[in-house]
Design the sequence.
């Protein structure tokens, strides 16, 4: 009877767990506008007031939202727009145009996209017809026709704003800002960027037309808030179907946040980056370890996830190399030591390797030159070594100058963990003179 | 609304009164007065410059209203034509339906709007003038008299520029008032005389009653498309003349004391209008646009087929506001005969036009023109303008008294014919009104020559005024925008860069210089170039716009010859050669490829063609038009040097030495040395600009304005910046206010905060808010720079420093991947300048901030 009970319990758990995982993964991967804002109330108020004035009063505006990656710029604007659209008078009166510098890589594409999203007269189906010049004059005329009181305000959201500044002549930005500073259709231009020097990118005429409003998002929270965010992100919502499980889960999360080792993990993470995406990454990895037999997250899960996160990727590659390749890397390290970071070529590495094999080692087979060459090329493919740019021309492969992309400490650390490493190779690595 | 009998079955002869004033430069003869004689009843109307006239259009109940500015004879083509230049007014029903809501109130039944649309052609055929009308300008505070029964009086209160309704500017208001007053002065003695000549029982009220009677009958009349002035029209004119002096006296004294103004006017209207206007009539006028299509079909008895066949070109012609041609006259007569079959033929005063009649009339016209003697050529210099005006006034006075004399003599005849025509009209069934005019006025200029040959009557309703068929437009909002509620909101509205100020303070000198330059070119009928430079935000474009606006007003007032204004902006082009396409399109409405457009423009400007009006071309952001061959700049500056081109080019760019720096010698030589530089605004100028915008609005402390002005003047002198900061300051003030209804004043603290927000660099806060590892990476960079003595280091070098630093501070060992992530994060914020990360260990790193700033930011913890 007890076994049956536990079985049914685990069944419930699997169901609940898959739901938990779905909810939390959604939260971590998607920047849903449902999540709470924290620490940006002032900026949020500024932005939403500005949008409201455009929507209700028809006042043109331009603003840049500046903040490092993962600081919540998109979330801020999404929140503000969502709130704006909930106002009844606004929802039908406002047009939105979303552009992204990574998608609209030049003004031509951007113009077509704007025309399409505004659904102007030259849009047929989903296509925009006409040449670039026609589209521009068409759009400008359309925007010029309107005036403050009678036209629908248009909100332009330019993601990756800095990339628009690289378009030829900054035609699009000039025109958008010019409209925002003249008595035409009311528009709000909102640029999102992570570059702090964005104003220097703008051409002087464009810059003059920009209103110089900047909203900075700086991740200005401290560690206590970070822990709070951690808790908030991991807790289940109140509307979770299985109340009992949700309560238990949330209790566990509360317990975790007070655990010392968890706090250490979080502190380390916080020290590296205040970016919330990296926190999401950590939580995602930890969440994946939750199974039916292991229904609640533990400190160990988080620690292992953290280890996965902070893994050195190159050291991992080195772990998978053959002994010959390791030997070549060691030879390169010695060359670097001797010639003080000067570039080397295959021949030099081969000679160094030969010295080691002939003088001392018996554990390493004396490979033929083509075989060594092959190993060398494999290293190049793995980008552990990199050819010098200038000499890529017609020189023979053996004499092409290379540079090692591994630091000495990295090599030594990797060797420590390298499985079944021959002792003399390890000795050779510590000193090039060890065979004497 | 009254029917204005426009094309009755009599024909009219138009002749000049007074000696022509020949202007050699303008290539035509101008006149002060025109006399319209109606066949059959020997009545005459005298129409003078400055009076308001009705002009026949396609809606006969609402003929076009305009102010006569100039009368002249166009003899460029063999049969000389009588032409007139007018300033248009629009009726509310002529405003496109989609823009009517802009008025925001119900229009007065007799309200018209000053048509402030420079692109509209003001050059009309003088023979389309129907008669005179009274137009009374109202001050912005006045209420448009609504239930006024005197329908021959129209009121103008606002101006309409196809975008918005605006109150009449004070100069305009004065200008509208003036001619009537002067006319009143001239007519005063005459009025006394004519009154004495009349039977003593004729009181003004009786006059009006008579006239209204005639108007009622007129509303039922079927309009026939002939030019002649009917007896009825004659009668109306006569009454108008009688009423005029009284009325204008009223207005002139009313304008002196404003409080009692409205009352008095209303009282006056009650005297003059005994009959009530019927309500349904009004409704009908309000919705003609809706009914128009069906109605035209109904009316179009014989010419619907023609219309269908009409080619696009013809359609363009159709939309123009011109007198129906003689051919159509005849045809319409024929179509009408069955309808008016019940008329008593004895009283029909109209003469059915036959080819012989036309010929006769032509001959008569020619004779009249031959009679016009040519005065010695005058050169129209500014100095001579005054004298000329004096001469004009003299002439007008003479002509006036003479015409009034004539009117008096022929009065009885008019009465008789009036009554007969009344009866006739009563017998004709009321016909559906025509579609309101939806004409593209811009097109008329190109159609001068086709005026007399065209064979169509405008029927197309609801055409957009722009020549383009697909007028692009952003959807209009369903809910009107909110108006500013508080003082701060009002201030914010006024401080917005887009708010167009009435005048541009602190640019008077530049304004005067540009104005004089363009004006002199216009008066001399020559071309020229001017180069205007200045840093952004110093009011270059705004000043030029202001100049053009003033010149357009002057052109309307006939002080300078009319001109065409074209504006192109280098930044609004996708490619420099597109400038040709844009100019051509704005000049002629044609579309062409860039190369073809260049050819056409060259042909237009460089070949000896028919006399045209001067073109003023504003080229904004000139430097964007630079090409390797510089052919565009060359052409732009070469065209004005041709004698026939009559092109004035105003080029605007930012750099003062642009001609020397980027132009070839042959281009800069053609640009010439007429240059002007807009200096950045000084702090006192900026202060003045802000004050003038915030006039009568207590929103800012004086010190707050001064602070902003000084800060901006020290940095850039950019007026836009100044306005933006003040706008932001009002917002900050509003935020900081707890009670929303308290009248807050923007203090110095608020503007300080706004200034800081806009100008302070964010690097230091960014560093302060970065993570521990990022900060230690920055320290490592500083350490590495200090070690090597260079301002650049590879990632590998910094990494070893970083590891050492971390060890010292007790931080966990940073792996290479983590450090790389930190580095690229800092790089993406542009705190560091880094090479692309494919260089990995070897990528070079630089600081984008000064080392001192970094040290300061890191130390402050």
Sequence:
């Amino acid at each position: 009877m007890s076994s049956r009970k536990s079985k049914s319990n685990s069944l419930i758990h699997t169901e609940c767990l898959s739901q938990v995982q779905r909810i939390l993964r959604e939260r971590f991967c998607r920047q849903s506008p449902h999540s709470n804002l924290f620490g940006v109330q002032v900026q949020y108020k500024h932005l939403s007031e500005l949008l409201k004035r455009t929507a209700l009063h028809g006042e043109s505006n331009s603003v840049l939202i500046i903040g490092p990656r993962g600081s919540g710029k998109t979330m801020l604007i999404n929140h503000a727009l969502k709130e704006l659209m909930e106002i009844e008078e606004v929802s039908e009166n406002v047009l939105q145009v979303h552009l992204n510098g990574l998608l609209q890589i030049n003004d031509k594409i951007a113009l077509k996209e704007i025309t399409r999203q505004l659904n102007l007269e030259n849009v047929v189906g989903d296509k925009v017809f006409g040449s670039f010049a026609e589209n521009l004059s068409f759009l400008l005329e359309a925007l010029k026709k309107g005036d403050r009181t009678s036209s629908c305000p248009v909100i332009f959201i330019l993601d990756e704003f800095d990339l628009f500044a690289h378009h030829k002549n900054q035609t699009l930005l000039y025109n958008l800002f010019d409209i925002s500073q003249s008595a035409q259709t009311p528009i709000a231009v909102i640029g999102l960027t992570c570059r702090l020097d964005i104003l220097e990118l703008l051409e002087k005429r464009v810059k003059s037309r920009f209103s110089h409003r900047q909203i900075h998002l700086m991740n200005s929270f401290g560690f206590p808030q970070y822990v709070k965010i951690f808790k908030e992100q991991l807790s289940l919502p109140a509307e979770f179907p299985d109340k009992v499980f949700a309560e238990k889960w949330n209790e566990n999360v509360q317990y975790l946040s007070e655990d010392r080792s968890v706090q250490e993990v979080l502190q380390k993470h916080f020290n590296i980056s205040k970016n919330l995406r990296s926190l999401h990454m950590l939580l995602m990895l930890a969440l994946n370890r939750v199974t039916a037999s292991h229904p609640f997250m533990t400190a160990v899960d988080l620690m292992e996830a953290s280890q996965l996160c902070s893994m050195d990727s190159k050291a991992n590659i080195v772990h998978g190399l053959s002994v010959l390749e390791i030997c070549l890397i060691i030879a390169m390290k010695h060359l670097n030591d001797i010639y003080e970071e000067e570039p080397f070529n295959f021949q030099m590495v081969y000679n160094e390797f030969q010295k080691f094999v002939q003088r001392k080692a018996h554990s390493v087979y004396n490979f033929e030159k083509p075989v060594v060459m092959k190993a060398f090329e494999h290293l190049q493919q793995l980008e552990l070594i990199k050819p010098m740019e200038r000499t890529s021309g017609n020189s023979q492969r053996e004499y092409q100058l290379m540079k090692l992309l591994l630091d000495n400490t990295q090599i030594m650390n990797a060797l420590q963990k390298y499985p079944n490493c021959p002792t003399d190779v390890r000795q050779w690595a510590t000193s090039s003179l060890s065979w004497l | 609304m009254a029917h204005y009998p426009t094309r009755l079955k009599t024909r009219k002869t138009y002749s000049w009164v007074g000696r022509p004033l020949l202007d050699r430069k303008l290539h035509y003869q101008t006149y002060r007065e025109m006399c319209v004689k109606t066949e059959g009843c020997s009545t005459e109307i005298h129409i003078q410059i400055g009076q308001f006239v009705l002009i026949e259009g396609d809606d006969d109940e609402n003929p076009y209203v305009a102010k006569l500015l100039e009368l002249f004879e166009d003899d460029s083509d063999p049969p000389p034509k009588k032409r007139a230049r007018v300033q248009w007014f629009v009726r509310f029903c002529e405003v496109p339906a989609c823009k009517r809501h802009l008025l925001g109130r119900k229009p007065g039944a007799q309200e018209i709007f000053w048509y402030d649309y420079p692109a509209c052609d003001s050059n009309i055929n003088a023979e389309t003038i129907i008669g005179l009308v009274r137009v009374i300008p109202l001050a912005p505070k006045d209420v448009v008299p609504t239930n006024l029964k005197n329908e021959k009086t129209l009121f103008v209160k606002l101006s309409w520029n196809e975008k918005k309704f605006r109150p009449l500017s004070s100069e305009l208001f004065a200008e509208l008032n003036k001619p009537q007053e002067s006319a009143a002065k001239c007519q005063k003695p005459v009025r006394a005389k004519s009154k004495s000549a009349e039977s003593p029982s004729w009181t003004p009220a009786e006059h009006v009653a008579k006239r209204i009677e005639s108007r009622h009958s007129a509303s039922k009349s079927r309009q026939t498309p002939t030019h002649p002035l009917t007896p009825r029209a004659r009668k109306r004119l006569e009454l108008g003349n009688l009423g005029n002096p009284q009325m204008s006296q009223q207005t002139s004294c009313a304008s002196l004391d404003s409080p009692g103004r409205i009352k008095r006017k209303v009282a006056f209207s009650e005297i003059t209008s005994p009959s009530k206007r019927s309500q349904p009539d009004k409704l009908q006028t309000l919705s003609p646009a809706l009914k128009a299509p069906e109605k035209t079909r109904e009316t179009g008895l014989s010419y619907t087929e023609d219309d269908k066949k009409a080619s696009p070109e013809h359609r363009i012609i159709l939309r123009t506001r011109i007198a129906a041609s003689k051919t159509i006259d005849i045809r319409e007569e024929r179509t009408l005969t069955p309808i008016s079959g019940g008329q008593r033929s004895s009283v029909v005063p109209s003469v059915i036009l036959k080819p012989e009649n036309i010929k006769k009339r032509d001959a008569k016209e020619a004779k009249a023109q031959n009679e016009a003697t040519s005065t010695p050529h005058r050169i129209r210099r500014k100095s001579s303008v005054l004298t000329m005006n004096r001469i004009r006034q003299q002439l007008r006075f003479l002509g006036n008294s003479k015409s009034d004399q004539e009117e008096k003599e022929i009065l009885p005849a008019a009465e008789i014919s009036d009554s007969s025509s009344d009866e006739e009209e009563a017998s004709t069934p009321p016909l559906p009104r025509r579609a309101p005019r939806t004409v593209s006025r811009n097109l008329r200029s190109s159609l001068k020559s086709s005026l007399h040959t065209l064979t169509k009557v405008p029927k197309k309703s609801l055409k957009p005024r722009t020549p383009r068929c697909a007028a692009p437009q952003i959807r209009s909002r369903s809910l009107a925008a909110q108006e500013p509620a508080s003082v701060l909101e009002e201030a914010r509205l006024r401080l917005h860069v887009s708010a167009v100020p009435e005048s541009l303070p602190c640019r008077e000198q530049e304004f005067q210089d540009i104005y004089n330059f363009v004006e002199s070119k216009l008066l001399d009928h020559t071309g020229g170039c001017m180069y205007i430079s200045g840093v952004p935000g110093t009011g270059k474009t705004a000043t030029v716009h202001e100049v053009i606006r003033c010149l357009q007003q002057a052109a309307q007032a006939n002080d300078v010859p009319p001109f065409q204004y074209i504006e192109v902006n280098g930044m609004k082009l996708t490619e420099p050669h597109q400038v040709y396409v844009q100019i051509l399109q704005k000049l002629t409405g044609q579309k062409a490829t860039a190369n073809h457009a260049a050819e056409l423009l060259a042909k237009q400007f460089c070949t000896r063609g028919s006399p045209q009006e001067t073109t003023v071309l504003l080229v904004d952001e000139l430097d964007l038009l630079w090409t390797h061959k510089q052919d565009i700049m060359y052409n732009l500056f070469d065209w004005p040097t041709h004698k026939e081109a009559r092109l004035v080019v105003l080029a605007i760019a930012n750099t003062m030495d642009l001609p020397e720096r980027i132009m070839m010698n042959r281009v800069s030589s053609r640009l010439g040395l007429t240059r002007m530089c807009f200096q950045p605004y000084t702090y006192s100028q900026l202060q003045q600009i802000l004050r003038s915008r915030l006039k009568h609005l207590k929103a800012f402390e004086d010190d707050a304005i001064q602070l902003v002005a000084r800060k901006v003047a020290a940095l850039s002198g950019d007026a836009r910046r100044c306005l933006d900061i003040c706008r932001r300051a009002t917002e900050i003030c509003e935020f900081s206010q707890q009670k929303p209804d308290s009248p807050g004043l923007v203090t110095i603290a608020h503007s300080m905060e706004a200034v800081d927000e806009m100008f302070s660099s964010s690097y230091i806060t960014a560093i302060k808010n970065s993570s521990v590892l990022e900060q230690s990476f920055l320290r490592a960079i500083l350490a590495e720079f200090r070690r090597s003595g260079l301002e650049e280091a590879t990632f590998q070098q910094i990494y070893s420093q970083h590891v050492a630093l971390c060890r010292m501070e007790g931080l966990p060992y940073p792996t290479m991947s983590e450090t790389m992530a930190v580095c690229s994060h800092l790089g993406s914020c542009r705190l560091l300048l880094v090479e692309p990360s494919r260089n990995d260990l070897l990528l070079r790193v630089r600081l984008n901030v000064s080392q001192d700033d970094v040290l300061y930011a890191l130390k402050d913890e």
